[in-house]
Amino acid sequence: MTSYQEKTREIRNELRSLHKLNPETAKGFGALSAGAMADGPLDKKQREYVALAIAVTQRCEPCVNLHVEALMKAGASRAELGSVLAMCVQMGGGPALMYAAHALAAWDEFTAAAG
């Protein structure tokens, strides 16, 4: 089974290739992302939790991996993650439960690798 870290490296490489093929689209998406992540009423960690919740309920595993990693860098805790994942399950039902399990496993793997 491919690790979450390997999957995250793979999606980053795939995204680089896509960005080279479509630089204007990449530039536009980058601007959209920067605007959405700009300082405002929600801090970075809160915005990443929103992004993770959407990733879980939309069943986007690469998105889950990238946002779990970003949450760790933003100072999130495993307990906070669990609370957000519970809300994802409540809102998304069974499919969200499966992706919530992926998000928690990714967190544990990234934490173990960090040390």
User: Helical amount among residues, as a percent range?
Assistant: over 70%
Distance between the termini: 22 Å
Q: Which structural class matches the secondary elements?
A: mainly alpha
Shape: globular
- The CATH architecture category equals Up-down Bundle
What profile does the largest beta sheet have?
none
Radius of gyration over all CA atoms, rounded: 14 Å
CATH topology: AhpD-like
Strand content: under 5%
Got a strand count? Answer: 0
Order of helices and strands: HHHHH
CATH class annotation: Mainly Alpha
Mean pLDDT across the residues is 94
Verbal overview:
With 115 residues, the chain is mostly helical. The protein has one domain (4-35, 43-114): AhpD-like. 84% of the residues lie in helices and 0% in strands. It is built from five helices and no strands. The chain has helices at residues 4-21, 23-36, 44-58, 61-73, 78-114. α1 (4-21) packs across α2, α3 (44-58) packs antiparallel against α4 and α3 (44-58) crosses α5 (78-114). The longest helix has 37 residues, at 78-114. The relative contact order is 0.14. The mean pLDDT is 94.
Provide key terms for this protein.
mainly alpha; 115 residues; globular; 5 helices; AhpD-like
